[in-house]
Design goal:
Chain lengths: ~110, ~110
């Protein structure tokens, strides 16, 4: 059983389009995260939700909007995609914020053409 | 700038050798974690060490933490080809915002 799942795995799209990435965790965790990993493998946190409430919002363009319909899901919507948005996006979850182990999804590889 | 910095950026060794990678950070922490990332996959948690701990073991992994030097090291003993991956340290910077370094890319030659 997949603990943290993301869809889609691959996403190729044109500049200017709007796209969404979905994330679900079946671990019963309270906290979920979105990370962006660039081509140099630098992994940077974008957002964190705790019990459906936004607790971390790093300096991310407002074209990126997270949505948490319930504590098991954290989706990422991206408007007006740009070339620089090409990266691998990882969803993760943990029981208690970052004090505990984070469980990562397999990643969504986004390529903006 | 990011909190954790791994060193070296890349490490290439023969199977059976030990691999040591280091992580330095800037601010005080509650804990420090090490993760492994296989090519094209998500990160997998290896070890969490708390700020009041100095050393921790898990199988062939040994992690040390020196809070006075703001550094940690991950030692993989008797490495195997399957250990080939990128290794990241993550700290919370005392603020519960998890920050990762750029990772150490380890290649273990069979």
């Amino acid at each position: 059983d997949t603990a943290v799942s993301q869809t889609p795995k691959y996403l190729v799209t044109q500049m200017g389009n709007d796209k969404s990435i979905k994330c679900e965790q079946n671990l019963g965790h309270d906290t979920m995260y979105w990370y962006k990993q660039d081509s140099k493998k630098f992994l940077k946190i974008m957002f964190s939700y705790n019990n459906k409430e936004l607790i971390i919002n790093e300096t991310v363009p407002n074209r990126f909007s997270p949505k948490s319909p319930d504590k098991a899901h954290l989706n990422l919507h991206i408007n007006s995609l740009e070339l620089g948005d090409s990266a691998v996006y990882f969803c993760a979850s943990s029981q208690v914020r970052s004090q505990e182990t984070q469980y990562f999804g397999p990643g969504t590889r986004l390529l903006v053409l | 700038s990011q909190q954790g910095e791994e060193d070296p950026q890349a490490l290439s060794i023969q199977e059976g050798e030990n691999a040591t990678m280091n992580c330095s950070y800037k601010t005080s922490i509650n804990n420090l974690q090490w993760y492994r990332q296989n090519s094209g996959r998500g990160l997998v948690h290896l070890i969490l060490i708390r700020s009041n701990e100095r050393e921790k073991h898990s199988g062939r992994l040994r992690v040390t933490l020196d809070t006075s030097k703001k550094s940690s090291s991950l030692l993989i003993t008797a490495s195997r080809a399957a250990d080939t991956a990128s290794y990241f340290c993550a700290t919370d910077g005392g603020s519960y915002i998890p920050t990762f370094g750029r990772g150490t890319s380890l290649i273990v030659h069979p």
